[in-house]
C-alpha cells in the first residue's frame, strides 16, 4: 500500500517544475502547499498489530510525506527481510532512499533504519517542520521522560496484567506515574502540539484503554478490567490521564493505525491461547 499525503494543486502540472529533468526523484506538496522536492522514498516494514511498529506508522503519518507500508509475516519471516532489511528480525524497520523498488526487493542503496523510538526521533529530525520535536531542550527532555515512563512502567504493568499474573494495583500505579509527567491542562503530553512524546506513547496509551474497556486479561476476574476502565474514565483522580487518552484516541494518525477492533481481538486470541495452555 502506498500512503500519500499529497495535496493536489494545479501548480503540480506546471511545465516549469523540474519533475521530468529530475527523473526518479519524487516531489510533492505538503499540507501547507509548499513544495517538497527531492524527497527520498520511504518504505516502512510493519505488522498491523505491533505497537512498536505503530509508533513509526503514527510518526510518518504526522509528517505528511508519501511512504509505502509493507506487512511482514513474523511467523514466517522472509529471508530477504532478515538479510537485507533487519537482521534482528523485528518490525518496525525502514528502507530510506535509493531507487524505487518493490518492498520485497529492497535495494542495497537504501539506508536501513530500525528500533521504533530511534525511528520516531529520526522522523522528527528529518522533517522538522512537523514540530514533532519540541523546540526547547527542556521540553525535549520532558518528552523523552514521558516516553521512558510509558515504555518502562506502563508497558511493563500492562503486559504483566494481560499475559501473566500482574495486578490491577500495579497498572494503576503506572498510570499515576505517567499522569504525573503530563503537563496539566495541555491537550497532548506537553502542549497542544502533538510531539514525539505522543507518537511514541500513543500505541500503549490506546492499548491500556482498549484492553480495559474490553475486560481482557489472563488472570483477571470477569469485570475486573472493565472496573478499572470505569475508574479511570470516571474518577476525577485520573482526569488528566483520561483527557490525554481521549485526545490520543481522537488524533487522525492514531485512529488510522490503532484499530479499535483489531487490537482487542489480538489480546483476546492470545488470552485464549494462554488459557488453553493452562488447562
Ligand atoms: N525494541 C524494538 C521492539 C520491536 C518488537 O519487539 N517488534 C515485535 C513485533 S511487535 C517483533 O518484531 N517481533 C519479532 C518476532 O516476533 O519474531 C523496537 O522498539 O522497535
UniProtKB/TrEMBL annotation:
One Gene Ontology cellular component: cytoplasm
Domain named GST N-terminal: residues: 40-131
Pfam families on file: GST_N_3 (PF13417)
Alphabetical list of SUPFAM superfamilies matching this protein: GST C-terminal domain-like, Thioredoxin-like
Protein name from the UniProt record: GST N-terminal domain-containing protein
Naturally occurring in which organism (per UniProt): Clathrus columnatus
Organism ancestry: Eukaryota, Fungi, Dikarya, Basidiomycota, Agaricomycotina
